Amino acid sequence: MGVFYEFDEVDAFTVGAIGQPGQRTFLLQARRGSTRVTVKCEKQQAAAIADYLRKVMSDLPSPAEQPLPAAMELAEPVEPAFVLGPIGLGYDRDNDRVLVQLEEIVPVDEEGEPDPEAVEDRGHLRVFLTRGQAAALCSHTDSIVAAGRPPCQWCGNPIDPDGHACPRMN
Prior knowledge:
This protein is an alpha/beta fold. It has helices at about 45-60, 115-120, 130-145, and strands at about 5, 10-20, 25-30, 35-40, 80-90, 95-105, 125-130. It starts with a strand and ends in a 24-residue tail after the last helix. The model has no long low-confidence stretch (mean pLDDT about 90).
């Protein structure tokens, strides 16, 4: 059976990247006490989560406080429990909490149909965040994403350290 974690409260929920720009592995991590759950994701998935949470937060009062920057660093171990697939995000008005639900990616066959056993056995991480934690995640995600390779001013593609063959400069 796949891993299933649900946190009504977390000490931290963060994003981080390991490796050099252009070859980084992005990770989301939830921590509560000594329990740590890490999920491997794509940079675009992390950025999309932050963008959506920012939209949700725009309709809510500003948070009173946010976690300290040190709380936003990844904590060891960082071994991923699964690779991120579907993402669910929302807001629980009754508890004033932001919901982040992450599900494991499901392999598909040649026809693009999901493996029924894998669907039933996939990993889940469900986290409820305070508005302060959600706001801190958004800011931290922006800084992690921006720390990668700079974009080309003409085509927008990332520039590698050893150069860039810009398609618009032929």
